[in-house]
Amino acid sequence: MTYSIVARDVATGHLGVAVASRFFAVGALVPHIRGGRCAVATQAFVSPIWGMEAAARMAQGEAGAEVLADLVARDGGQAIRQIHMIDSAGVSVAHTGADCIDWCGHMVADGVSVAGNMLVGPDVVGQTLEVYKAHMHLPLAERLMTAMEAGEAAGGDKRGRQSAALRVHRDQDYPWIDIRADDHADPLAELRRLYDVAHERFIHVADALPTRENFSGTTAREGIDRAIADADAQRAAAGRPSRSFATALD
Length: 250
Fold this sequence. Notes:
Blueprint: E1 2-8, E2 15-21, E3 31-34, E4 38-44, H1 48-59, H2 64-74, E5 81-87, E6 92-96, E7 105-109, E8 112-117, H3 123-134, H4 140-153, E9 163-169, E10 177-181, H5 187-198, H6 202-206, H7 222-237
Antiparallel strand pairs: 1-2, 1-8, 2-9, 3-4, 4-5, 5-6, 7-8, 9-10
């Protein structure tokens, strides 16, 4: 009932998952990421336990293939599950259960994998992967959204559209960006809007957050405020209004 892409950016080591479905709040269950270590998408007759356990074990250094084989062996429902995941070296593994609903399947390449079920056909997965690989010049988040849009153009979920999500981690276990459209007529377009809104203010705050290496993070507001003001000025100069629905202060 879903298609998704899991990827690791070779240049930065950043990890991301994007997903879309005719299912409510798909982003609440599918993506599981450990910054700098691994990323997982668990779907079909979804088991969040698969996602959580796979991410935790790969984050401790266990090979993805080993983890996947163990999950399949232990789960009496493995035939209705689908999962794909990538480790810190960019090695991907995937499983599509024999009883997942057609069209279902996955494709794996260097640093990226795409999987889906209940799709219009195999072109959804194929186009998502090909467009991702054709846009390596884009930042990871934009590359993932562009790939997902290609999958939708190829037919997407055969039941229609409802929700989508994008999560990207840099080298921390909290996300650099985590946006979701939980119930929307055009969820991938809504992700684009949210991504634009994030760049008005949120991204500049995210860049200043504490990290494992810098426990205090950035403690002065001046640089953050300057970055936000510069972004506002650039947007105004380009004639682009804010895309945020936030209310103004009185």
